[in-house]
Amino acid sequence: MNPSYARLKARAARIATLGEASAMLGWDASAMMPPGGGAARAEQLATLAGLMHEMATAPEVADDLAAAQAEGEWDQANLALMRHDHIRATALPTALVEASSRASSACEKIWREARRHADFAQVRPALEDVVRLQRETAQALAAALGMAPYDAMMDGFQRGVTTAEIEPIFDAYEAFLADALPRALDIQAARGPALPLAGPFPADRQRAMAQAISARLGLDYSHARLDESAHPFCGGTPTDIRITTRYRESEVAQALMGVIHETGHALYERGLPGAWARQPVGYAAGMAAHESQSLIMEMQAARGDAFLGFLGRELQAAYGGNDAAHAPANLAKLWRHVERGCIRVEADELTYPAHVILRFRLERAMIEGRLEVADLPDAWAEGLSRLLGIAPPDDARGCLQDIHWYDGGFGYFPSYTLGAMAAAQLMRAARTATPGLDAALGQGDAAPLLGWLRVHVHSQGSRLGLQDLLRHATGKPLDPADFTAHLTARYLTA
Amino acid sequence: MNPSYARLKARAARIATLGEASAMLGWDASAMMPPGGGAARAEQLATLAGLMHEMATAPEVADDLAAAQAEGEWDQANLALMRHDHIRATALPTALVEASSRASSACEKIWREARRHADFAQVRPALEDVVRLQRETAQALAAALGMAPYDAMMDGFQRGVTTAEIEPIFDAYEAFLADALPRALDIQAARGPALPLAGPFPADRQRAMAQAISARLGLDYSHARLDESAHPFCGGTPTDIRITTRYRESEVAQALMGVIHETGHALYERGLPGAWARQPVGYAAGMAAHESQSLIMEMQAARGDAFLGFLGRELQAAYGGNDAAHAPANLAKLWRHVERGCIRVEADELTYPAHVILRFRLERAMIEGRLEVADLPDAWAEGLSRLLGIAPPDDARGCLQDIHWYDGGFGYFPSYTLGAMAAAQLMRAARTATPGLDAALGQGDAAPLLGWLRVHVHSQGSRLGLQDLLRHATGKPLDPADFTAHLTARYLTA
Asked: Which burial class, exposed, middle or buried, applies to A462 when counting CB atoms under 10 A from its CB (0-12, 13-18, 19+)?
């Protein structure tokens, strides 16, 4: 092996190992840490992040990257990612990185208060600082990467898809939804209300069932844990996955569907190519790709008719209650309920993209200097009205609802809907290639689906960007028609 | 501040912060990690250890240490510790460190098998490798530090006490025990057998009581957690303490006394001087000092008559049962039972030092080249017979019982008994200085004891070595008479 490339691989592995340590400490902070540990933990994570950045940007890295040569598709992809990551890591002056990190930390704290009081004015100056520094960041990254500024921000979360590709897809979805949403609501109304599930649902029993179903979906708990945290997530490392959820004893679906969602993320991490562990090419292909894996398990598989049949039997066995409430058609009424709502994280599958499209348009306009922070609440209200025909009752349920911008996370939002669309596209391809996939899901068995995903998605690591990954797996780039066909079948068929 | 010293302080803080990350990952590995995470965790810990060693031994450290000047008692002690630690960190050739680490890892794995089969021959070659490399290590450290080889090994665990000081203390204890043990057994026999506690003791209730009593002893659970692990320990960092225990539903004392023991360790960490956090002088004063704090809580306070009165009431309220079984005199029979046994970790307070003295003599002889590994089983049997008048039925219950040597941990064993002796000495001083200390313990209230320890031990960090710490706190160096007086009062008074 070319010695420069060999040194780069060794360095990447060392940096990745520190990243694993950070990931575990991050999980602990959310799932285990007593509150008094927060200050020391922040210092530990900052020290690790600083060391990783120092290692990634040390002068000898540039020399090695210039001299490195790689042979074979995977090594070449790995080296290309090293070069790409190095451009991102060195594009920003240290002063800008530090100012941006400070501004985001400060703004996020103020945001928590402002949201509680539904008072946008309180956080406006801090958000103005964040946006100014995010614009500078986007400009600097854009120059270094040869991309448009907003594309450079998206690239930090999902490589291989551009605004030029997304914009027409999102515009088309807006048109689809304008027609589909009223029809879906009419059909839903005609079906009548759902029967409630009995309950209560003791947390212990919910936990046991969630873990059993997660294991049945393919997650090996000798390499994973299920715990609780305020905000569910999938963390840890590929051989030691940590997923979390939150239990309410009055309701069973939120925790269960949440665990199935995180299980999708976890299965992706578990299926990454072990031979490339701790190398850039061995990671997941990006946040949209990751979201496609959580949503294919939750939205495509678990909320589909076949799996609802299985779940109904499991729930009735665990908690009792009558047959009618546990029939798939009733569970579909409960768990595929469509509604015009203001809150993204509570939105159903059909309206969720509207929330994302709104945020995509607004954050892109902010990065490109076409929208000022002062005008955000009005722009939000206008956009929401246009997309869903409703108005937020206050800013807490409007432009203050999500942490992303206040924490400096610009460019992430599209990943949610790109993931949902990719999930539909991958599910269609998996179904076509795998007879019996739905029959197996009807027995709670995701092995045929998982087998297909292992080969066509998980084992690919980040060798390919999003569009190329979809081409590789399904024969075409992102095609929203598969998503709208899925929605049409599920919500627009009386 | 002298710029060299300022740089050294910044470096020490950074290294300490990585040490905190390691500590949390170590806790996780024992208390939380699924088995499949082991390989990645080993890599994470090795990478952090390597980075810490690189930082501690970087060429500029020697320059800064040469030029550094510190003012004031604490900074001077801090700088002296930096110099001492640097000598230890640089005394060993990298090849020796790596060979030793590999030999210990290999030997420890074989030892687990050999112990299971009570087959010393199986692990003998691996232990010979370990001992050979430990001898080399001791020689190199001794030359660098200007100490005797075995002292240099002890110094790695407990600074400020020498073999020349310990040996006569241990010899005197052997003489004391030869007289005391038969008398204690006679007195115990005359008192008759203990009434058993009813049980069962559901793990949930044990956990709740253990945490409540630990909190009552002064541990603030906004800075701590109590979890389960195969081998109980106290880990984490001073603002985020993690203690563990293990519950058996048939028996209540082991977990409860274990938690009280770990609470003593935890309270020490919590009481370290926050102003010196992440500096050498801000750490605990060594392993014997640490053991003194666990044993002052467990052996001196919790197993004392006053606290047993409190515990009896608590246990009866939680689990029911009759008054006689929960009377302090009966609990003392149960939990202060003396026995000639082969197993160190099951030993009572009176015979425990015999197990330590045996190991101290044998490991010192191995380090000094006076005892070969091949002769260890015989030397063990002879020594045990001389100290306790019993013989191990096999090597699993003889020289294979402890992990220490097989894992390369030579020089640690004396800490257990030095800690027990220091605990008695500190308790006597605390009692003298603090009227009402025992009356408070009778109500489950350790505040007077803890208040005294905070001032005289915890807040001192590692400013002083063991002997100087005891002089500072009690007016005299280690004095085993306080320990034998305690044992005489507890076990030799009919």
From this structure: buried
A174 lies in the same domain as A97 = no
Which residues 212-231 in chain B show a CB within 8 A of chain A?
220-225
State the total domains in chain B. 2
User: Looking at the domain assignment, is residue B116 inside a domain?
Assistant: no
Has residue A494 got a pLDDT over 90?
no
The helix/strand/coil state of A3 is helix
**Spatial distance between the Cα atoms of A230 and A232, rounded to a whole number of angstroms:** 6
Residue A235 CA to residue A233 CA, distance in Å, equals: 6
Q: Is A374 found in the same domain as A249?
A: yes
The arrangement of strands across the sheet holding A224-228 comes to A224-228, A240-245, A234-237
Whole-angstrom CA distances from B432 to A423, B437, B449, B473 are 73, 9, 11, 12
The reply to whether A464 and A393 lie within a common domain is yes
Map residue A411 onto helix, strand or coil.
coil
Q: Is residue B364 part of a domain?
A: yes
Neighboring chain A residues of B222 at a CB cutoff of 8 Å: 34-36
Q: Say what the pLDDT of residue B494 is.
A: 79
How far apart, in whole angstroms, are the C-alpha atoms of residue A392 and residue A31?
32
Question: Does residue B199 register a pLDDT over 90?
Answer: no
Asked if the structure places residue B247 within a domain, the reply is yes
Tell which residue, A250, A244, A245, A246, has the closest CA to residue A202: A250
What's the token pair of residue A451? 């087998």
Q: Which of B90, B116, B141 is the last residue of a domain?
A: B90
Please name the amino acid found at residue B319: Y
Domain end (from B72, B90, B108)? B90
HEC-encoded secondary structure of B68-119: CCCCCHHHHHHHHHHHHHHHHHHCCCHHHHHHHHHHHHHHHHHHHHHHHCCC
Instruction: Give SS3 for B479.
Output: coil
Tell me how far apart the alpha carbons of residues A342 and A289 are, in angstroms, rounded to a whole number: 26
Residues from chain B that touch A222, judged by Cβ atoms under 8 A, are: 34-36
Give me the domain span that covers residue B12.
1-90
Give the C-alpha separation, A321 to A311, whole Å. Answer: 13
pLDDT surpasses 90 at B198: no
A234 SS3 class:
strand
Model confidence pLDDT, tens digit, residues A15-57? 999 999 999 999 999 999 999 999 999 999 999 999 999 999 9
Residue B313 lies in a domain: yes
Residue type, A174: E
Q: What percent of chain A shows pLDDT beyond 90?
A: 99
Task: State both tokens at A93.
Answer: 């002056």
Determine the average pLDDT of the residues in B168-188. Answer: 98
The most distant pair of C-alpha atoms in chain B lies apart, rounded to whole Å, by 69
Measured between alpha carbons, how far is A67 from A15 in angstroms, rounded to an integer?
20
Integer distance in angstroms from the first to the last C-alpha of chain B? 61
If you measure CA to CA, which chain B residue comes closest to A19? B44
- B60 and B158 in a single domain? The answer is no
Identify the active-site residue in A128, A249, A262, A339: A262
> Apex CA B306: angle with CA B305 and CA B309, to 5°?
85
Burial label, B351 (beta-carbon count in 10 A; 0-12, 13-18, 19+): buried
Please tell me whether residues A144 and A201 are part of one structural domain. no
Using a CB-CB distance cutoff of 8 angstroms, which residues of chain B are in contact with residue A225? 32, 34
Q: Give CA–CA dist A469/A351, Å, rounded.
A: 26
CATH of the domain at B327: 1.10.1370.30
Rounded mean pLDDT, A363-392? 98
Q: Based on the residue annotation, tell me whether A43 is a catalytic residue of this protein.
A: no
Q: How far is CA B184 from the centre of its chain?
A: 26
ipTM over 0.90: yes
H or E stretch at A430: helix A414-433
Q: Are residues A119 and A200 in the same domain?
A: no
Cα separation of A392 and A115, whole Å? Answer: 13
A419-426: average pLDDT: 98
